[in-house]
């Protein structure tokens, strides 16, 4: 899925925190954005969907972060908790998309995301056939709806911008391999 979708899904994870504790809305949103975004930094170095993607082992720090935030609620613990959950949700949900290849619609590589616990690649499920597929955009829109319902200000702008960029990306996605290695997966 697009990194923009992951950011919006991360933001949607901040929504329950914001509803329960409005004073933590900002830190929760920041955590959601960072946690949704960080795994795909492994596009810049290391092995994409392996170096910074932890679909199974990521559950441990994410769970610990949630427990700490429940025990000691505050801006930092809320940000870390939402960020940790967004991080593992990003990693795990990449298995629902396409494989690691320049043209995922060709389905020549079914490796989706690396499971460090079992030491093997998880197979692509193609529920979202490839990043930038209309279904990817649909996930982004569905994630954005609750965010737009509870947030205004900068978070709303980030959300609207991500939706607009995601729409443009979806429109040009299949032409990208001709020009450049896709940086948003
Ligand atoms: Zn990813």
TrEMBL record:
Residues crossing the lipid bilayer are 24-45, 52-72, 157-172
Picking any one GO molecular function of the record gives:
hydrolase activity
Q: Which UniProt keywords apply?
A: Hydrolase, Membrane, Transmembrane, Transmembrane helix
Name it. Answer: Metal-dependent hydrolase
Protein species of origin: Halomicrobium mukohataei
